[in-house]
Write a structure and sequence with these properties.
Blueprint: H1 3-29, H2 39-42, H3 54-66, H4 69-77, H5 82-109, H6 116-124, H7 126-157, H8 162-180, H9 187-206, H10 212-218, H11 222-237, H12 246-271, H13 290-297, H14 306-313, H15 324-354, H16 358-362, H17 366-370, H18 373-386, H19 392-429, H20 437-452, H21 468-490, H22 495-521, H23 525-560
């Protein structure tokens, strides 16, 4: 097998999925209607609710859902062989992941831009809503704590990424003012600021920035210094109007990703390297069983519950027309899947271009690849890009900068979502202080910082990270449950959502049970307890939903015979 065959398979599946299946979902299942007012128009406040050009919104949504997930997950999962990883990334995206994102987005706009957790309360009652919101809040805190550490670590290990990563902030603000205040055609600032951003990448490669001397003088570890800076930044970013920073930043990052993907895929086509990895490996040293753990190791790129938070948390508040949901929700996910495919190619065929033994060295065991997925992607991706004549050092800077920028945009969005959830809980329990966006943002930042500080060196988020994959996929199952309840109430076809819902809940519940058992046997009672608690919360939400469905059926039956 060579890289070109992988690319042909993936993009053929994407074309069929978008041209035919997403049209069926739009027209026959959810019945999108541009005559309906979207929340962006109905509740417009020019802070969170802002009608947005679908291509700009696609860039925001694409980068917010992408982050580092579709890089790290597939890079680790190819230890089970390139074929299972490729099939789950491509087919999972077409029939499950993109359906999940699209359905969460449409369900939210049909409920005034509310989050999936809040919407659940309309169908399954107040208890289910609060349980779901608390689960979402816990996952958002975990994402923020881990991503803050990862970004800080990347700044320390790849100082060449510092200049381009921070230069995008003023560029995004200038873009926002140009488009929304001065009404400049967005193509002009797009080309201008994208050119400046790539100049910053070049400058970053020439002038790497290390803060070790400054942090040393202050008596602070460089990673902790960056973590503090990142949380100060996200405090302001999560409260500013979405058009001013978050949306243009994500749009510019999305374009950068498209360019980088083009370079990686072009390099793969030009070099067309052979895949230097096993087709299937069912027993890698130290690895858990492929079923169910493949499906939670690869989350972003095939399916991720975090995406439902983005779809219903920020994206639904900016959708200008219902028909734009097909482009933003479904196509946006296929874009992320294409990144995961590029990672699979980089870690299998690309590493083979580095040396014949490089894959075997990095993937010698589960523990080996768990600590080196990013180097595997950087090395393999750089080798592919270098086949186009780009210098290896510049290629590495491009990829490292891209990883930092996308992790940062996910963190930006996650803190804003966390603010929304705190606001919603404040409404439920009448906590006046937390209804203010600034105090809610402070609560979001402080809660994440507390988790960061729970372990020395800023690694507090990793206390619970081993169970994040399963918890994240359970969240995806619950988001599909909300869409199923909505479609059922509306009398629409439910199978396109019900079948993924059953698969996701079964496979990830099994993973969570195994996680809890393994942690208990290993003596890690904290993780075993948290895994068990999440399972109990999931069962509680499902039982509340079943109770609500039975209640609806009984009411219909009583009306029929009266």
């Amino acid at each position: 097998m060579n890289a070109l065959a992988m690319i042909f398979f993936a993009f053929s599946a994407y074309a069929i999925g978008y041209l035919f299946y997403s049209r069926y979902l739009s027209e026959k299942v959810f019945c999108l209607d541009d005559s309906r007012k979207t929340p962006a128009h109905e509740l417009r406040d020019d802070v969170d609710y802002v009608p947005t050009n679908r291509w700009i919104l696609l860039g925001h949504h694409f980068t917010s859902i992408t982050g580092a997930g579709p890089i790290v997950g597939p890079a680790i999962a190819v230890i089970w062989g390139w074929l299972p990883a490729l099939l789950w990334v491509v087919l999972g995206a077409v029939v499950i992941g993109a359906v999940h994102d699209f359905s969460a987005l449409v369900t939210s706009i049909r409920h005034r831009g509310r989050s999936v957790g809040t919407i659940l309360g309309d169908y399954a009652g107040e208890r289910a809503r609060v349980i779901f919101l608390l689960l979402i809040l816990a996952l958002a805190i975990l994402v923020n704590a881990v991503f803050a550490y990862v970004i800080a670590l990347l700044f320390t290990k790849f100082p060449s990424s510092v200049i381009p990563a921070w230069s995008i902030v003023p560029l995004a603000v200038a873009f926002g003012y140009s488009v929304y205040r001065f009404r400049v055609n967005f193509l002009i600032p797009t080309l201008l600021f994208l050119g400046i951003l790539y100049l910053a990448v070049f400058l970053g490669a020439r002038y790497p920035v290390s803060l070790k001397p400054l942090s040393g003088a202050l008596g602070i570890d460089p990673i902790m210094f960056w973590i503090v800076v990142l949380f100060i930044y996200t405090f302001f970013a999560s409260s500013l109007p979405v058009w001013l920073l978050l949306q243009p930043r994500d749009f510019l990052n999305g374009l950068q990703l498209l360019i980088l993907l083009f370079l990686v895929y072009a390099g793969a086509v030009v070099a067309n390297p052979e895949v230097k990895a096993p087709l299937i490996n069912l027993s890698p040293e130290g690895a858990p069983p492929i079923v169910p753990f493949l499906f939670i190791t690869i989350a972003c790129g095939a399916l991720s519950g975090f995406h439902a938070l983005v779809s219903s948390g920020t994206t639904s508040k900016q959708l200008a027309r219902e028909s734009d949901a097909r482009t933003v929700g479904y196509l946006g996910f296929l874009g992320e899947s294409s990144l995961a495919v590029a990672v699979v190619i980089a870690c299998t065929a690309g590493l083979g271009m580095v040396s014949a033994q490089r894959f075997s060295e990095l993937y010698s065991s589960w523990e080996s690849i768990k600590v080196s997925p990013v180097p595997a992607v950087v090395e393999g991706g750089s080798a592919l890009i270098s086949s186009l004549g780009v210098g290896p050092e510049l290629a590495e800077t491009l990829i490292a900068t891209f990883i930092v920028l996308f992790a940062a945009t996910t963190m930006d969005t996650s803190v804003r979502i966390q603010r929304y959830i705190i606001n919603e809980l404040a409404q439920i329990y009448s906590i006046s202080a937390l209804k203010n966006p600034w105090t809610a943002s402070a609560g979001a930042v402080l809660s994440s910082m507390l988790l960061v500080l729970a372990k020395e060196g800023g690694k507090g988020g990793f206390l619970f990270w081993p169970i994040f994959g399963a918890a994240n996929q359970l969240l995806a199952g619950l988001a599909l449950l909300v869409a199923f309840l909505y479609l059922r109430r509306e009398g629409r076809p439910t199978l396109p959502v019900l079948l993924p819902l059953i698969f996701v809940l079964v496979i990830t519940s099994l993973a969570m049970v195994l996680n809890a058992l393994n942690n208990f046997l290993a003596g890690d009672f904290l993780l075993a307890g948290v895994s068990t608690l999440i399972l109990i919360l999931e069962v509680a939400v499902i039982l509340e939903s079943i109770r609500a469905i039975r209640s609806q059926v009984e009411k219909r039956e009583s009306r029929r015979y009266t």
